[in-house]
UniProtKB/TrEMBL annotation:
Residues 29-39, 46-57 have a biased composition (Basic and acidic residues). It comes from Nocardioides acrostichi. Belongs to the UPF0337 (CsbD) family. This is CsbD family protein. Transmembrane segments: none annotated.
């Protein structure tokens, strides 16, 4: 997996965690759900990159 892809996925995951925490603190269920969605998206992308890497070897 490329460094840029890893960085993008990590940034998306961190942003998702921040959104979830802010949503939890403020009681904003919509923001909390959006944060969880961002984290899930990051995980899926990361898994896809790992699959691509496995086929390159």
């Amino acid at each position: 997996m490329g460094f840029v892809d890893k960085a993008k996925n990590a940034a998306e995951d961190a942003l998702g965690k921040a959104k979830e925490a802010i949503g939890d603190t403020t009681g904003d269920d919509s923001l909390k759900a959006e944060g969880k969605k961002d984290q899930a998206s990051s995980s899926v992308k990361d898994a896809g990159e790992k699959v691509k890497d496995a086929f390159k070897k």
